[in-house]
Amino acid sequence: MTSTAGEFSKLNINGDWASSAPNLQKNLSLLSPEQVELAKMLLEKEQSHLFQHWSEPGVNDDEKRAFFDQIAKLNSSYPGGLVAYVNTARELLADSKAGKNPYDGFTPSVPSGEVLTYGDDNFVQFEEAGVKEARKAAFVLVAGGLGERLGYNGIKVALPRETTTGTCFLQHYIETILALQEASCSLAEGNCQPEIPLAIMTSDDTHLRTMELLGKNSFFGMKPTQVKLLKQEKVACLDDNEAHLALDPHNKYRIQTKPHGHGDVHSLLYSSGLLKVWHDAGLRWVLFFQDTNGLLFKAIPAALGVSAIKQYHVNSLAVPRKAKEAIGGITKLTHKDGRTMVINVEYNQLDPLLRASGYPDGDVNSETGYSPFPGNINQLIFEIGPYIEELTKTGGAIKEFVNPKYKDATKTAFKSSTRLECMMQDYPKTLPPSARVGFTVMDAWLAYAPVKNNPEDAAKVPKGNPYHSATSGEMAIYRSHSLILRKAGVKIDDPVIQVFNGQEVEVWSRVVWKPKWALTFSEVKSKVSGNCSISQRSTMAIKGRDIALEDLSLDGALITEAVDGAEVKVGGSVQNKGWTIENVDYKETSIPEEIRIRGFRFNKVEQLEKTYTDPGKYFLKP
C-alpha cells in the first residue's frame, strides 16, 4: 500500500503539468508542496521562460528555493496574487498597444467643491471646525522616496524644511500633529485623552532610515506607540506585451522588481488591520499627505472643516491651476452609460479630453485667470466608514496603469522592462455614484510648495512656472508666514528678487514659528497686537506657545524660545546686524548637500536670542 502511495506521489511530482519547463521538472523534488503549487501557477500563466536557465539538481539549489521565496512574497503582497497581476497586465498592455484612451466615452465637467479665501469669516469657521474634528483623525504620510531626484542622498523627510531653524520635514509634521492634538482636545467637552495616530508608508529604500530618524530623535515628541510604519513591497517587472515576468539582469534566479507607486497605501492600511483599529477607536477621518510639502499643514484645519461640514467621503486638497500647468486637474467625468466619477486627470490628458468633448480650445483659463479645473496636490481626506466599506469590496486594490517605453512605433518591444503602477489619488475610480467626492481649493502660497526638483532641472523651468525645488520650497515658507502676518495686521516689507542656483525667487522676511504657536489664522491674530513691523532683511523665529508680539519693530534677527507656561510679550524696537544670505554653488562639494541644493546659506552675524526655561510672565523689550 505504502509503495503504491509513494509511486503515486512520484507520478504527481514528475507530472505532465511541468513538461513545458523540463529544467523545472528535473528540480521538482527540491520544492515544498506550497512551492509546487506556485510553480504550477507560473506555468499556467505561461511563465515557463523563468526556468530556462535552471541548472541540474544539486547545482544552485539554494538559489532555486530563494526564487520561490521571492515568488511567494510577490504573490502574497499583491491583492489577488500574481494571477491577478499578470491578467491585469495583459489587459492594460493590450490597451496601451492599441492606443486605447482610458477616458473613452467620458465627458469632462467641473466638479463641485469649496473655494476658500484665506482669513475671511468663512475660512475661519472652517478652520475652527477642522481643529475640533482633528482629535477624530488619523494621518498617513506617504514616504517611500529617497531624495536622489533632489540631489540629496538621504530620505526626503530628513531634509530641513527650512534652514532658519533646521527643522526637518518629519519633525515639522509630527510637531504639527501634536499641536493639533492638543488644540483639538482643549475644545472637547469633558475629558479628552486622544493620541492622533500617524502611519508612515515606507519602502525598502526608506524603511530603516525612517526608523533610525525617529528613534534617534525620540519620535520628535510622539509616543512610539502612536507611530506605525507600513512597508510597501515592490512588484514584478514585465518584459513584453504578453506580460512575461522579467528576470533580474544580474541574477537569473530572481525576478526583477520595481516600485508599484503610492497607491499601495490603501491595500497596506487595509491588510495591516490599522483601519479597523482606528475605526473601532472612534476615529472618523484619514488624512493622506506627501513627504516634502512644507506648507500643507497650513491648509489641513480648514480642509478638515470642509469635510466635516460638507460631509465629504473624499476631499481632495487643491490649488488654483493655470491652464496647461504640469499638475493634474480635478475633473468630474460622466460616461455615456451614466457612470460618474470625480478624479484627478493628468495635465497631458486633460487638454485632449476637453478638445474631444466639445471644448474646441481645450485646457484654457476662465475669466478668473485660472483653469476651472483645480490643481490636485495629492493631499486627501477620507471619511473612514465609507473608506473601509469600499476597501472591503476591493481588498485595497487601486485601478492601475502601465507606461511602457516602446522601442519603435510597432509597439511590439520595450526599451526596458515595465511594471504596473498605481496612485493613491485614483481611489475614487471605483466608488459608487452615491459617494460624496469634493475638493477644497486654497491659494498655492498657503498650501503648496513641494520640494522635488534638483537645482539643474529647476533652473530650466520656464520663467513664471513654479520651480518646486529646495530653494523655492524654503522661500515659499517665508512668503507664507509673511503674508499671514500681513493679514493679521503686521507691517511686512515687500520682498526683494534674488537668484539662487539659477532660480529667480522672492525673498521675504525670514519668519518661522513652531506649530504650537499658531495653527490657525485666529490664533495668529490673537498673538499679534498694536503696531508691529518687520523689515525685509529680518529673521524671526518663534519657538513657544505663549509668545505674543506687541508693538514690535524688528530690523535684524530675533529668536525667542519659551517653555509651556512661560508667557512672553515681545515688543519695542529690536535692531541688530541680523543674518545675511550668502550664495552657495550647488557644485561646491565641501558644503553639505542639504545646503547646496538650496543655493544659499545664512551668515548669522548678530541676533537677539532669548530662551525662557521657567513658567511665569515675561517682557522682552530691548
What do these coordinates show?
By secondary structure, the protein is α/β, with parallel strands linked by helices. The N and C termini lie far apart (100 Å). The relative contact order is 0.11. It has an eight-stranded mixed sheet with strand order 2-17-11-14-10-3-4-5, sandwiched between helices. Helices cover 31% and strands 23% of the residues. Helix 6 packs across helix 11 (296-310). The protein is globular. The chain has three domains: 4-77, no CATH class; 95-452, Spore Coat Polysaccharide Biosynthesis Protein SpsA, Chain A; 458-620, UDP N-Acetylglucosamine Acyltransferase, domain 1, CATH 2.160.10. Strand 7 (247-248) and strand 8 form a beta hairpin. One of its GO terms (molecular function) is UTP-monosaccharide-1-phosphate uridylyltransferase activity. It is an enzyme of class 2 (transferase).
Taking Cα atoms only, what radius of gyration do you get, to the nearest Å?
Answer: 28 Å
Strand order of the largest sheet: 2-17-11-14-10-3-4-5
Number of strands: 31
Number of domains: 3
Termini separation (Å)?
100 Å
Name the helicity range: 25-40%
Write the SSE topology:
Blueprint: H1 2-13, H2 22-26, H3 33-44, H4 61-76, H5 81-97, E1 106-109, E2 114-115, H6 121-133, E3 137-142, H7 169-187, E4 198-202, H8 207-216, E5 227-231, E6 235-236, E7 247-248, E8 251-255, E9 257-258, H9 264-271, H10 274-280, E10 285-290, H11 296-310, E11 314-319, E12 329-335, E13 340-345, H12 347-355, E14 375-383, H13 384-394, E15 401-402, E16 420-421, E17 437-441, H14 444-447, H15 455-459, H16 470-487, E18 491-492, E19 496-500, E20 503-507, E21 510-513, H17 521-526, E22 528-529, E23 533-534, E24 539-543, E25 547-555, E26 557-562, E27 566-575, E28 579-583, H18 593-596, E29 600-604, E30 608-612, E31 616-620
Parallel strand pairs: 2-17, 3-4, 3-10, 4-5, 11-17, 18-23, 21-24, 22-25, 23-25, 24-26, 25-27, 26-30, 27-31
Antiparallel strand pairs: 1-12, 6-9, 7-8, 10-14, 11-14, 12-13, 15-16, 19-20, 28-29
